[in-house]
UniProtKB/TrEMBL annotation:
Pfam families: PBP_like_2. It comes from Saccharopolyspora dendranthemae. The keyword Nucleotidyltransferase does not apply. This is ABC-type phosphate transport system substrate-binding protein. The lineage of its organism: Bacteria, Bacillati, Actinomycetota, Actinomycetes, Pseudonocardiales. The chain crosses the membrane at residues 20-39, 244-263. InterPro entries: PBP_domain, Phosphate_ABC_transporter. The keyword Membrane applies.
């Protein structure tokens, strides 16, 4: 945006007259205000204020009493080892914009991940109001490195602050009394769900962490990764400059080159890799509903196959297939995951798994379930009020997907048994605000779930596993279709997720190996753990007839 304003100022200044120069100066003065008040009105800044070890070490070799180190109680030795691997991270989060931020403004909630470090405790400090502190504490959710911030936690793991405090007490007791630390859940991050910040409100997130048992060396890791997306605004690190300078660019290139050199050195001495590994680079596009599963499989593959580089993008099933269908050289896409069948194109199809989808509503609609016929009436516009299908009176607000969504194609073919008119306008808070029926679209699975959860009277459809995630806010409800829950025998809202590659052209060794990998036993746990059923490949059940 700043580049555009600078260019306009230059054009007007070149005209040379005082009036034009004054106008250019006015534009220059107005640009920050327009950017702040109109273009990016809602702003959240965060800053990592502290990220360092706690520093408790009674058995340090620098102590004057050397006999303490050699004769110390084994429990004290264990306590010292544990404390030496502990660190504290303090993050300040504040609303620096000119508008209040409500929970419905988030397309994706804020989450912080700390690499391999394990969360021992967390608290909210110095909140602007007691109500803000209570709300943040109540809606904190903790997750592991193997479960993205919106994924389902392991069985038996509540993933809330109460569970964290319970395990903290257990760990401290076993450490002090038994000289060993109970392992417990391995949380690696925290998600701040249902966050609402009034103008100038702020708080601090304090997290106590411990390096994993396999960590060696005295230096602690400093990783703090942040995810989140807000409508009509930004979530930004205060420490980062607003634009890249030449000096910064040169420094970044130097760091990248140094990283490449280090990676090359590591690869040269790496141990023998599994048979499914290959060297190269590929780019994968496809379904936003299935891409979180693909990302976990890719992460595991790259950890084991260090010479492989696989990038992914959730562009949508149909969009991805169109890009794959372009001639080699004009498209950078090597493969596409799609839950919609490819109608055109010379592709090789590899079935991966059966994926269940779900119809979701905002719980204020108070509907226990819907039939396929009722869904056809709702999405065609014939039924516009919830009381017409046994719910609480109120307008029905449809959060749909665009035509390029594979999930939408499955919904049309399996539930609607036809086509539904595609909405023209995207869903945002202004579009969904009026007390009247609405039909709009959201860009991906996460956006649909967030809009339905924060909009009374809303209905939509999405990947069932994401919709059933207990980390989703309680206002989201998955309803049966024709009396069947997702995954039950006879449930129709499902599809076979497939991997599509080109049938012609020179084969990419990495793509061939990755296809073998994702259809093999090494990825089975990732697929089943995400609620998907592998099918159609050796040692797997046949896929349902499509």
């Amino acid at each position: 945006m700043g580049t555009v304003w600078t260019g306009l100022v230059g054009i007007f200044a070149e005209l040379g007259t005082p009036g034009w120069i004054a106008f250019a100066a006015l534009l220059m003065l107005a640009a920050p205000l327009v950017d702040r008040l109109v273009i990016r009105r809602k702003r959240i800044d965060y800053r990592v204020l502290y990220n360092s070890k706690i520093g408790l070490d009674p058995l340090s070799k620098h102590d004057k009493d050397d006999e303490l180190s050699s004769d110390a109680d084994p429990r004290l030795r264990h306590l010292t080892s544990m404390a030496g691997r502990m660190s504290v991270v303090i993050i300040r989060i504040r609303n620096v914009g000119n508008y209040d931020i409500e929970k419905k403004d988030f397309d994706e909630p804020i989450s912080f991940t700390f690499g391999k470090r394990v969360v021992w405790d967390a608290r909210i400090s110095e909140a602007s109001t007691p109500e803000l502190r209570s709300a943040c504490r109540e809606h904190m959710a903790f997750f592991t490195e193997d479960h993205a911030p919106r994924r389902k936690p392991p069985n038996g793991d509540a993933g809330d602050l109460g569970a964290v405090r319970k395990w903290l007490k257990s760990r401290m007791f076993t450490t002090i009394e038994a000289g060993q630390t109970e392992l417990g859940p391995q949380w690696h991050g925290v998600r701040l769900g249902r966050l609402a910040l009034k103008r100038n409100e702020k708080f601090k997130l304090v997290v106590v962490l411990q390096e994993p048992d396999e960590h060696t060396g005295h230096e602690l890791t400093k990783t703090v990764d942040v995810e989140g997306r807000i409508e009509n605004g930004w979530i930004r690190d205060e420490k980062k400059k607003p634009r890249l300078t030449w000096a910064g660019a040169m420094m970044g290139v130097s760091v990248l080159l140094a990283g490449a050199l280090v990676a090359t050195s590591i690869n040269s001495v790496a141990a023998t890799e599994p048979a499914y590994c290959a060297t190269g680079t590929i780019h994968v596009e496809g379904s936003s509903a299935f891409m979180p599963v693909v990302d976990r499989a890719v992460q595991k593959y790259e950890q084991e196959c260090r010479a492989a580089e696989i990038s992914t993008s959730a562009s949508g099933s149909i969009d991805g297939l169109e890009m794959l269908g372009q001639e080699t050289g004009s498209s950078s896409v090597d493969a596409v995951f799609s839950d919609a069948p490819a109608v055109d194109g010379n592709f090789h199809r590899t079935p991966i798994a059966v994926v269940n989808f779900a119809v979701v509503i905002n719980e204020q609609a108070d509907v226990p379930g819907l039939t396929s016929e009722q869904l056809r009436s709702i999405f065609s516009g014939q039924v516009t009020d919830w009381q017409e299908v046994g719910g609480t009176p109120g307008p029905i607000k449809i959060v749909d997907r665009r035509d390029l969504s594979g999930t939408r194609k499955v919904f049309e073919s399996e539930i609607i048994k036809g086509t539904i008119e595609s909405p023209e306008d995207p869903c945002d808070s202004k579009m969904l605000a009026p007390a009247a029926p609405v039909h709009c679209w959201s860009s991906d699975t996460r956006a649909v779930l967030n809009r339905v959860e924060t909009t009374p009277g809303a209905i939509g459809f999405a990947d069932a596993n994401a919709a059933l995630d207990p980390a989703q806010a309680p206002n989201l409800k998955v309803i049966p279709i024709d009396g069947k829950e997702p995954g039950e025998e006879g449930y129709e809202f499902r599809a076979v997720e497939s991997l599509y590659t080109r049938s012609t052209g020179q084969a990419n060794p990495l793509l061939t190996k990755f296809r073998e990998y994702i259809t093999g036993d090494d990825v089975r746990d990732i697929l089943t753990g995400s609620g998907n059923k592998p099918c159609g490949n050796p040692r797997q059940e046949p896929c349902p007839t499509e």
